[in-house]
Amino acid sequence: TSYVGARRSFDWLTVSKDSIALTAVEPSEDELRAFYDANIDQFTLPRTKVITYAALRPDALVDEIEIDAAALEQLFNDRSAEYQVPERRLVERLVFANRDAADSAKAQLDINGTTFDALVADRGLSLQDVDLGDVTMGDLASAGQDVFAAQVGDVVGPLDSDLGPALFRINGRLEARVTSLEDVKDELRAELATDRARRLIETRAEEINDMLAGGATLEELIDEPGMELGKVDWHSGSTDGIAAYDGFRQAASAVTAEDFPEVAFLEDGSLFAIRLDEELEPRPEPFADAQDRLRAAWQTKRLQDALKAEAERLADMLRTGADLPEGIEL
Q1: Is the pLDDT of residue 278 over 90?
Q2: How far apart are CA 284 and CA 41, in angstroms?
Q3: Three-state secondary structure call for residue 161
Q4: DSSP labels for 34-52?
Q5: Helix, strand or coil for residue 57?
């Protein structure tokens, strides 16, 4: 019970890089070499698979594909709701049981000086209850003409609605947005070309797979239109280039030296095949290749050391009861 009921009261201060003045210093090669040797675990490369891959990507075939004007127009028309957005209003609607009640409420607005918010509250409602959001003229049926003719801030009505006579408050106006085919022609052409390129790749997949099954090497596939050949040192942390794709990472993780290359697909519709050339055990990254990471780690360590020294200095001051430097507070 004493343990559970125990309480502590304490103050603290945080020592951040903004708390210290650290001059810019570039390490010498000897300092970098010493840091590299002392922290070699930070610069040890993981177990790595050296993989050769061949890939056929939609982007490589797009330029070969022609899109006619009819296809562009058809896609544009299919997207009419996206490209032809009508004028809208931000509207609140307060519905009444009958026309007399609606007329009385409107008279209170016009003559007695009450507000729309007060009318809503008198009904036991919130503004959220009466909010219609953004609507088109067609959404409001017979009330649409009067609502769209009003100015922002006006309250119009009573007007008929599907729930009965209502007062409408206009809170905002959203202009119509009309996009022409000319404005989006390049975008639509690229989309159609990419889609057709993906389908073309699908039709070529069986042919390429047959070539691989017949003994063709990945290097020989480079003669196929659009095919690219590459090599990657892959490990579980690789995310650059083709290794950014989940499909490639899964295949790379599973591939063995005994596997023959076969066609698989990436998320973007690309076709690829891989071959494991060799596996490299964990090993130190060459000093020359590690320069960028090495310099960053050296600077981080320098900052950490400076922060620790400052924290220890302040801790000593607190222990002895000395006043903290100006600008530093618990």
Answers
A1: yes
A2: 8
A3: coil
A4: HHHHHTGGGGEEPPEEEEE
A5: coil
